[in-house]
Amino acid sequence: MIRAMRGWNWNCADAASKSTYGDGFFGARIKIADIKGLNNAVWLTTADNFEIDIAEARYPSYVHLGLQYWPPANAGQHAGMGWGATFKENLAAGFHDVGLLRTPADLVYEIDGAPIAAVRTLAP
Q1: Which CATH number fits the domain that encloses residue 107?
Q2: Is 20 contained in some domain?
Q3: What is the pLDDT averaged over residues 79-89?
Q4: Radius of gyration (Cα) for the chain, nearest Å?
Q5: How many domains does the chain have?
Q6: How do residues 36-58 score in pLDDT, each as one tens digit?
Q7: What protein family does this chain belong to (predicted)?
Q8: Which of 11, 29, 51, 114 is buried deepest, with most CB atoms within 10 A?
Q9: Is 7 part of a structural domain of the chain?
Q10: What was the pLDDT predicted at 19?
Q11: What are residue 102's phi and psi, to 5 degrees?
């Protein structure tokens, strides 16, 4: 299901699935808004309370990538890690592909087909 929300000078939407997915490649083609302070985000959530931030892009050229753990209420403490990437070009000038390759042991983040960060989530 995709819900589109409109009303200001920008649009947003979210997509929810009745199916669950494990490993694989997850990606989106995005064009970020040319509005300072607006967080243009593509992320996944897991059944075990993780949030995988494929891209949190901010005008004009910054992208944050991350992995967060959000425990159920009163069941632990939030934990997270992340990286930032700054690009030379204005990301609002055109569309860009953002993606994540998720394997049983790794997360590999990519932008426009090039890997830019990776994390091992399980010991080999």
Answers
A1: 2.60.120.200
A2: no
A3: 94
A4: 15
A5: 1
A6: 988 899 999 888 899 999 999 99
A7: Belongs to the glycosyl hydrolase 16 family.
A8: 51
A9: no
A10: 80
A11: -110, 120
